[in-house]
Amino acid sequence: MAGSIFDHLQEEVQDIIGRYPVKRSALLPLLNLAQREEGYVSEEAMKAIAALLDLTPPQVYETVTFYTMFNLKPIGKFHVQVCKSLMCALVGSDDVIEWIREKLGIRVGQTTDDGLFTLSVVECLGSCATGPMMQINDDYYERLTKETVCRILDELKQQGDCPLKSGPFMVPEPTS
Amino acid sequence: MDPGSDGTTKLMASKYEKILLKNMEQPGYTGSLQDYEKAGGYQALRKVLGGIPPDEVIDIVKRSGLRGRGGAGFPTGVKWGFIPKDHPGPRFLCCNADESEPGTFKDRQLMERDPHQVLEGMIITCYAIRASLAYIYIRGEFRLAAKILERAIREARAAGYLGSRILGSELDVQIHVHAGAGAYICGEETALLESLEGKRGLPRFKPPFPATHGLYQKPTVVNNVETLANIPHIIMRGAEWYASIGSPPKSTGTRVFCLSGHVKRPGNYELPMGTTFRELIFEHGGGMRGEKPLKAFIPGGASAPFLTPDHLDVKMDFESVAMAGSMLGSGGVTVMEEGTSMVWAALRLMEFFYHESCGKCTPCREGSSWLVQILQRIWQGEGRMSDLDLLVDLCKNIEGRTVCAFGDAEVAPILSTLRYWRSEYEELIARAEASRSSKKELPVVA
Ligand SMILES: Cc1cc2nc3c(=O)[nH]c(=O)nc-3n(C[C@H](O)[C@H](O)[C@H](O)COP(=O)(O)O)c2cc1C
């Protein structure tokens, strides 16, 4: 596709399509790829994917809108998603949401003026023994306290990364 | 017993032999291929390729009594046996790694800490059902687990455990990781298949079942991560060994129970089926986190009806929990202390179900919205006594009237909290009614 966002990703795109006996199965993986590249799923990306998979743009759109992880509009560089389901709520997730709102000066669903942070509240992320927790882009941050929440947001802003993110998960932790 | 000063909880010795968590609990175990092989990994694959015919593998799994760990508890070997033997075309295996049931976080640990255990289980399953293409449908949020699995797949391929002519045999198996994009319903096996086909994740009518009409309408087995991780052990140590663990004959083996909520040591505990809730919560979990006693617990993920302190001695096996009026479900046990409002807890879970209803069936799509609104007004002090009958009436019109089991799940928190803690609802409403009559009464719109 001329001028498509996938131009520089031809190999990866072909690899993804090659995993399935039916092309349409590559739809979610390609949408995930598009979002990874652009931060959201643009109309251009949807059209390009439709062409790659022999689908109509409405078929792509119909699918995209079912899945909550796809952003159809640009969002902040860091997407802060706090789990609010019962298990996290029992151990203080509502406080976490308050701390972040205070710290960033935004409400749930908003993006900071500098375009760095978007705050969302989401349902269970599979980390109920290590709540309260949040996901920021690809990474989980667990057992949050007011101090760690502030530190994480500060370090992401300053360095673009924070060592407090979770590694391979295990609770209780192994002894060494 | 107390959480460490760094806020973590450290592993303690257990009186039971672990099966699935054994490797990862060894100090320094990384889950790499090398570590897995050193711990005896891929021996089970060698064993079946060395001369156990596929049908015999299915028979071994049947005799082991292994039942699905995804929620429904269907006998695994029996499910595999439904794959038509004479079907000429392709057949598929899907590993269900969607793990989105609130209160459940075991598959994440199994995948991130010992990915080859899952892969070996999948390869043996492919051999048994004669599939050569398998997918791991993993929830989109689990980016780390997906990366770890992809790395493990590359390792296994390079070592000849995956790909064509595995270990010099006739067996060809490819495994791909397929990430979802945020939809609880895609854990339901037919919604998972729709999603894997690149569509909206709407459950299909059953029958036909995936065993005959699954992915691309071809014979397909869908199994949970934990179910598949058990397979290599059953092959290595035998059906009889596995069947002797737990609560035979109906609930055999161990389960990784996910303990969360107001306990000292929340976490994943692998225990024999049939261990009591009391032992899980008070022994392994270290008991309640503070002074307050236990008030309620959810025994099997958000879809399972709440239970009370009177149920602490119920055994954690499929039958016993069902007898107690709930279900073992996904193995997620959530503990709540005295002082937790049950109306609030039901509301939180109902918000989840409302958010996740896929919209296919009218009773669930419309009903979930009504239920959440009614609970909200009760919780916010605007309820009426007639709301309680209305809640029950709505629940009864959802339960059993939807294409998938989501409908039964979403009414569980409400019906069970109403059953055991009805007075909490009544008190909130009575207070609301009192404050309304003391003000100038506004007409309440239906
Ligand atoms: C609403 C709903 C959500 C489900 N979510 C999951 C899930 O996240 N993971 C899972 O393994 N099974 C889930 N299941 C169960 C699957 O439909 C299916 O029974 C299971 O994957 C079969 O594997 P097993 O026999 O190994 O348990 C869900 C079922 C329903 C009705």
Write up what this structure looks like.
- The complex is a heterodimer of chains A (176) and B (446).
- With 176 residues, chain A is α+β, with helices and mostly antiparallel strands.
- Chain A contains seven helices and four strands, in the order H-H-H-H-E-H-H-E-E-E-H.
- Chain A folds into two domains: 7-66, NADH-quinone oxidoreductase subunit E (Arc Repressor Mutant, subunit A, Orthogonal Bundle); 78-159, Glutaredoxin (3-Layer(aba) Sandwich), CATH 3.40.30.10.
- In chain A, 39% of the residues lie in helices and 10% in strands.
- Chain A has a four-stranded mixed β-sheet, with helices on one face.
- In chain A, helix 3 (43-52) crosses helix 4.
- The longest helix of chain A has 14 residues, at 146-159.
- Chain B has 446 residues and is of the alpha/beta class.
- Chain B is 42% helix and 12% strand.
- In chain B, strands 3-2-1-4 form a four-stranded parallel β-sheet, with helices on both faces. A four-stranded mixed β-sheet of chain B has the order 8-7-10-9, with helices on one face. In chain B, strands 5-6 form a two-stranded antiparallel ribbon.
- Chains A and B meet through helix 2 and helix 5 of A and helix 5, helix 7, strand 3, strand 7 and strand 10 of B.
- The complex binds flavin mononucleotide (FMN).
- Flavin mononucleotide (FMN) binds at residues 68-72, 74, 96, 98-101, 185, 187-189, 222-224, 227, 404-406, 409 of chain B.
